Batch of 2 targets.
Target 1
Amino acid sequence: MSRPSARPSETIGRGWLDDRAVAPAVGKTLEIGIGVVVLALLATTLYGSVIPGYRTAAGAELGDRALARAVETTESALPPEGVSVTASRTASLPTTIRGATYGIEAKSMRLELRHPHPRIGGSASPAVPARVLDIRGSWRSTDPFRVTVAGNHSGVTMTIGGDT
Amino acid sequence: MTTTDRTGSRGSTTKSRGTDSTTQSERIRPDSRRDSESTSSRGQANLPAFAIAVLVVTSTATLALLVADGAFVAADREPIERQQAAGFAAAMVDAESPLTLRANVLNSTRVTSLDGSLDSWFPAAAGVDIRVTLGDRVLVERGTPSGGTTIRRLVLVSTPDRRTIEPVFSSSETAVTLPRRADSVVVSITPPDGTLVTTVRVNERVVLHDPAGLAGTYTVALSRFETASLRFETTGTLPAGSVRLSYRPTATRKAVLGVTVDA
């Protein structure tokens, strides 16, 4: 910017040049530093707590919906009374919730959603009449959800699972 | 920087090099001191702009997070309790429900005993905070279903009624039409001596027949879907009181069945 050769260094002095150069250098360094810190803070906040929190919230909601859909499918899979009853019904449920596969297990007339994340899950019992003797089976989200009903007029058993 | 350069270049073009260095340096000194001050404040002048940029980025991010939070709050639903309420409501008005006479028609006497029989009729309701209302009347309340999700269904509530009529027949007309539809009618025939009631027809279909004469009480099934007209074929006259018809028409009223589940 200036030409040291044009001026005798003893008259102008090193200090003067130093003062002049330090200002932008300090400014730029501060800018870069603050920028990096701000970005790091933002990224840490977003990826450290906010985004996982959102994923969990969305996952919990999706899990509830998947379970409600499974319960609805189970309720509607029940055919009218008959001497020999077989029926099956499928539903399309999400394969992954919050990036992980999950399962639904039927135990003592209740459907329970099991997910690796502790905050995703729940259980509900389908409102089926008393002639449904048992709801059993388990289903993994990698298979299509299917409810199979078999029995006679004294009682039917419902099985959930991916198998036909 | 540019000012300094210009000053320097002006100095170098107007003055010859080396001859007047002291004057030049003296002349430049105050200038350059002012330059140095303005340069330092100008160099840091980026900082306020940068601070504003940081502020903008941060507030945009915060705003975006607030919006996303709002979206999550707005999307918060209770699908399981809603599904349970809908499931119970559907199970209660189903044709094979203990509460109903047929689909969507509730039996008013069964409805009043729902409170005691809820767990045996609807086993899934065990342990669920549930309230069932019919119109303004609360039929069942288990637990504390404050808030919760309510599913309402329009139903008919059927109240059985018993009517008895004693038709008066003339010699030419021995038919009677039931004023209300019913699914059965109890026919009590007590003919006077010398008169035989041989056949009873409902809408010209023979439902009772005995050539030796009908006497006593008979239950005749009727169709709900047509008005029943009974005709008695006799060998003599039937005075008033010799035939009594007793039937149970149903009085139905509309009501709203509400099922609230709070999970």
Note: The first strand of chain B starts at residue 100 and ends at 102.
Target 2
Amino acid sequence: MKKARVVVTVKKDVLDPAGVAVKNALLRQGIKNLAEVRIGKVIDITLSDYASIDERHLIEEAARTVLSNPIMEDVYVEISDEMRNE
Amino acid sequence: MNNNLQPAIITFPGSNCERDVDKILRTRYHCAPYVVWHNNTAIPHDTTHVILPGGFSFGDYLRAGALAALSPIMKAVHKFALVGKPVLGICNGFQILCEAKLLPGMLLRNHHDRFVCSWQTMTWSSDGDNARKINLPIAHRDGRYFADAKTLLELKHRRQIILSYDDRDEHGHANVNGSMLGIAGIVGGPRRNIIGLMPHPERAVDAPLGNSGILILDAFVHGVNHEA
């Protein structure tokens, strides 16, 4: 199968309150040397075998415009080998 | 009936404030609003005002307002807004307007990560002058207004910050949700015709409970197109 994984992270300078809450929980678990915890999203996309290079470009565009908001998020797309070797 | 006023309330899966908006528009302004489902591609041609009500469109999946901003009706809302006709987004409606890029910035998770439902003291000024202190209810988890420094400066200089929380920290962020510059509502669009608000004016329209929402709804219905 042709797969793409879209990874969305909160920009470095933007406060991530969920990350702060998780950091505090991990501190209570005894992990003392935590500097920071940030929470992002992973979006896995599977395409049919008929998917073309055009669709790969559309996914890369959607990752920037729909799946993430550039005002507060960074995004990158991991493309599976099968898809890359088109 | 008010023959000059024909609002359209746009509803999405998960909208939940459309009836409150409908009720105050009917009782105060004597009109019969259209209620338009998001899957439509057109707004009725005689529509004079568009309102995006509060709620949790599409369950806030991906980001609050992100999926609603892609609904078929939003192309028509874009067109309506960009010719300068009045559009009001309340709470989730504000989030949708930001995701649709009809207003700058976006609304992030509250800095304390909790849902807040409370009355807040705010300063309202539709034109940058004549500021008034009012109380309005808020109910949201994603109400932290965020934009880059350049956008914030522009909003300030162009007097686009029409509503701001009074209670702020030493950085000027709202204590209730972490909003930058204490922003609770902004105006934008080609003719200062697009309004986005986190508080719910439609929930503050009865004197015994506090009715300062009427001030804002009057400004929207009768026009806030004061060029700054």
Note: Chain A touches chain B through eleven residues (CB under 8 Å).
